[in-house]
Design a protein that fits this description.
Length: 182
């Protein structure tokens, strides 16, 4: 069974897709509601499979999101890691906890080789119907384009009207005929 098939099967049965929008809002596509990082942490604690996708690029940003959850939890913790440990992470792991843990041997040796290549897009089988925000954005873009087109059409029609000095119009008026310049 190919990795793509496994991912599709996993997504259909267990994986919850969360979309992250440019405004940093997180949208649960199965529950059709916005969620917070705390909500995602609760899903993980409940052993739910979660995949976070950047809505614009369609890249899988699950690892970055889970790292952010850990960082936020650390900020709220009553006790921080010792300063010498934090300094060592910055000195020996270039500030990356993952690099530091890899140097300590916290990952299996073949961990990075067994990791799938980053998926640039969601497979078609996982794609969901457009969310409310997607439809709203599309509608706003269409309205803006229509308004721009109407403005251009009005400008073109206005430029076709005769301007002063291009001619005169004879209008019959009560009490005689008069000529007005346009």
């Amino acid at each position: 069974m190919s990795q793509e098939t496994t991912m599709v099967n996993k997504a259909n049965t267990r994986t919850k897709i969360i979309k992250r929008y440019q405004n940093r809002k997180l949208y649960d596509t199965q529950q059709s509601c916005y969620v917070t990082l705390d909500d995602i942490a609760k899903m993980i604690r409940a052993s739910e499979e979660v995949m976070v996708i950047d809505n614009k690029t369609k890249n899988d940003i699950t690892a970055a999101t889970l790292t952010q959850i850990i960082f936020e939890a650390e900020k709220k913790a009553a006790q921080y890691a010792p300063l010498f440990t934090l300094r060592e992470i910055i000195q020996n792991g270039n500030g990356s906890i993952s690099s530091y843990l890899a140097k300590l041997g916290a990952f299996p040796q073949d961990y990075h080789q067994n990791q799938p290549a980053p998926q640039p897009a969601i497979p078609d089988a996982i794609k969901q119907k457009p969310s409310f925000d997607d439809m709203k954005q599309t509608l706003e873009e269409r309205v803006a384009n229509a308004a721009n087109q109407a403005a251009r059409t009005t400008e073109e029609e206005t430029s076709k009207l005769p301007t002063s000095g291009e001619g005169s119009i004879d209008l019959p008026l009560p009490g005689g005929s008069q000529q007005f310049d346009s």
